[in-house]
Design goal:
Layout: H1 7-31, H2 41-90, H3 95-127, H4 130-135
Helix pairs in contact: 2-3
Length: about 140
């Protein structure tokens, strides 16, 4: 089996972008901000108490909702274009049209599901710390 024609180029480009991102993070935190002091014990304890009492209990509600939302998106993206593949199976002359319809279907599903979940994501953003929202 032959690999993609420009795989090495794409792989090196992605690796370069990843290393550039790591370099920017190191530059922004370590090199340009050497005055950042490590947390002392009371500050670490306050952060622990905040996460244990606020973030973790909220995550028990947020994570299942997020998991089900993503599962719904994945299911629709997987199942609905298969409908168009069945049409192609029976009418092989419609391949260009079927490919276009599959792409449009995926775009509409992602846009619709993303639009309806935007309000929920905004509420999560307002109630959770920015690092947790970014991780989600």
């Amino acid at each position: 089996m032959k690999g993609p024609e420009h795989f090495v180029h794409y792989f090196l480009l992605v690796t370069l972008v990843l290393l550039l991102g790591i370099g920017i993070v190191v530059l922004k935190t370590v090199v340009t901000r050497p005055d950042l002091a490590p947390y002392n014990a009371p500050e670490l304890n306050e952060r622990y108490v905040f996460h244990a009492t606020v973030v973790v209990p909220r995550m028990t509600h947020v994570y299942p909702q997020l998991l089900l939302s993503n599962a719904g998106v994945a299911l629709f993206i997987l199942i609905v274009p298969l409908y168009w593949a069945w049409i192609w199976w029976f009418r092989r002359d419609l391949l260009p049209l079927v490919l276009l319809l599959m792409q449009e279907t995926v775009f509409v599903l992602v846009a619709a599901l993303g639009h309806t979940s935007f309000i929920r994501a905004w509420a999560w953003y307002k109630t959770l710390p920015p690092g947790v929202v970014t991780t989600l």
